[in-house]
Structures are given as structure tokens and as C-alpha cells.
Amino acid sequence: MNSEHSLENRPDKLVVFVVLAYGITWLCWIPALVIADREGYTLPTIANLGQGLGSGFSSPRQVLLTLLFSLAVYGPLAAALAATWLESGITGLGKLFARVTRWRIPAKWYAAAVGVVLMLSLVPRVAGELLGMVSGGAGWPLHLLLGILLWQMLTSGLGEEPGWRGYALPRLQARLGGEKAIWALGLIWAGWHYPFTIYETLSHLVDVPAGTAITLVMALAGQTISLVGMTYLYAWLYNNTGSVFLAILFHGLSNFLPAVLLAGAAPGLTVMTAVMPWMVVFILEKVYGKEKFPGSGAVL
Questions:
Q1: How distant, in Å, are the alpha carbons of 21, 62, 63, 119, 198 from that of 67?
Q2: What CA–CA distance (Å, rounded) separates 232 from 173?
Q3: Phi then psi for 31, rounded to 5 degrees?
Q4: CA 106 → CA 90, 102, 110, 208, 231, distances in Å?
Q5: Tens of pLDDT along 209-226?
Q6: What is this structure's pTM?
Q7: Confidence band (pLDDT; 50, 70, 90) for 297?
Q8: How far apart are CA 251 and CA 269, in angstroms?
Q9: SS3 206
Q10: pLDDT per residue over 50-82, tens digit each?
Q11: d(Cα 197, Cα 270) in Å, to the nearest integer?
């Protein structure tokens, strides 16, 4: 579909959005991560969600920490609602809601979203099998797999996408245009993850204090570059459909499938998963050309 430049003449509230998105999330994430680590509680990350759902809660304190941790991902959603209200009131909120619930789009875009996620996940899985870097799999029953996918859509998907793609992307494209907007959003999105990335990286380090700083820098840099590549893919899907609903589905799938297909993978395989978005971007750019991929415009 053709992108519509329908931004109103009022100045946008991008700075307000970013400050609120970071502030709300970090105020929830950081205390939950620190206390859970100190007291040995398991939080529902995608890596251990199956374990957490199966084992239940050991105390009311863990329930509260889990709730606080889970609420963190809704920072971008809350920020988008607040910024939109300040920018254009109830009219703007109605338009944002319409994009979040826009599921009636050509079926080829659902197929494209699923196909991209499969490529992001299956190529590393096959490579891991050939190189002996994957042992078994998640081994979760079907009902648990479906529950994890739904959980990812309702938390990470719904909590983030109305903000990143529904609010920030069209405004950054209107301001900066083209690839500058994608890089700007990719860097903002990556930075938002940093407290969690630091926690996850440190929690997996074993007796390597001398290499801690280097490991952290590499982890943050790798995630940042990977998420900029993912931002190209989200922008392509959004610019051609105007559907935040599709972005929510894509987000849930892109968290869920790698966690399932690459469970038990050797750490070295994470390098391949980090560069896979750029491999897909390269392929799509060759197929569609830079004029059509990832597209441009502020779909509001």
C-alpha cells in the first residue's frame, strides 16, 4: 500500500516518548532483576519461560517481582499513549488504536512475516546441526509452546510495538526519512534493552572477571547491530501494511521461534543469529530494490 504522510502540523513528542519508554521500563526492570538475582528467583524471560511456568512460584515475593518484571515491557506502549495524547488527543489515540487492531491486510504480508521469522531461525538451526552445535531441543509440549507464543505476543509484542512501530517509526521517517530513521529507531530500541542485556550477560559469566568489560561491550554491540537489522524488517512490514497488529505478531514469533529451535545451542551460534537479520535484509533489498525495501513514509 502507498504510505500516507498524514502527520499533523503540531510538533511531535518523540523526546517525551523516548524518556517515558526508557523510564517506565527501567524503573520496573532494574529493581526486579537485581532483587531476583540476589535472592535466587527465576523471572519469566523467554529463555526460561517454560521452566518458570512448569515450576510455579515459591513465594508471594517472587509473584510481585515477576509482575514488576513483566510490566516493564509495557513502557513503550504507555509512552506511546501519553505522547499521542499530548500530541493529538483522543483523535490521535483513536488512530493509534486503529493501527494496532488493523489485522485485515493482504495474506501475503502474514506469509512474509512468518517466512522471515522461519529464515531467521531455521538457517542457524540447520547450521548448528551440521556443525554439531545444537543438542536436542526445547522438548516442550504443544500446549506450552502455544502458551509461550501467546505470552510473547501479549507482553513483548503488545507492550513494545505500538510504541516502536506505531508511534516512533512514522514520526522518525517524517523527520529523517529513509535509512536514517531506521538506524535512529534501531539504536533507541537497542538502548532500551541494555539493562536486561547486561543482566543476562553477567548472569552467564563464570570466573572471567578480567574479561567482563570486553564481554559486555561485545554483547551490547552485537545486540545493537542485530536490532538495527531487525528494524529494517519491521519497517518493511509496517510501511507496506500500516498494521501494528502484524508487528505484534512478528515480534512474538521472532522471540518465540529462535528460543524453541535454538534451545541447547552452543554459545558460538549466537553470532550467526545476530547477523541473520542483516542477511535477510540483504536478500530482500536485492529482490525488491532500495526503492521498495524497506519503503518509506509515515503511515498514520
A1: 18, 8, 6, 33, 20
A2: 12
A3: -60, -40
A4: 29, 11, 8, 51, 21
A5: 656 778 888 889 999 999
A6: 0.90
A7: low
A8: 21
A9: coil
A10: 555 555 566 788 889 989 999 999 999 999 999
A11: 14
Q: What is the pLDDT of residue 17?
A: 98
* Residue 121 pLDDT greater than 50, yes or no: yes
Q: Which pLDDT does position 299 carry in this prediction?
A: 59
More confident of the two residues 177 and 153: 153
C-alpha 296/C-alpha 178 separation (Å) is 6
Report the residue count for the chain: 300
Question: Do 100 and 257 form a contact (C-beta atoms < 8 A)?
Answer: no
Chain position carrying cell 535484509? 281
Strand, helix or coil at 186? helix
**Cell output for 223:** 545486540
**Is residue 236 within 8 Å of 289, Cβ to Cβ?**
no
The candidate with the shortest Cα–Cα distance to 50, out of 123, 124, 141, 120, is 141
Contacts of residue 33, defined as CB under 8 A and 6 or more positions apart, other chains included, come to 43, 69, 195, 196, 199
- Residue 220 host element (H or E): helix 212-241
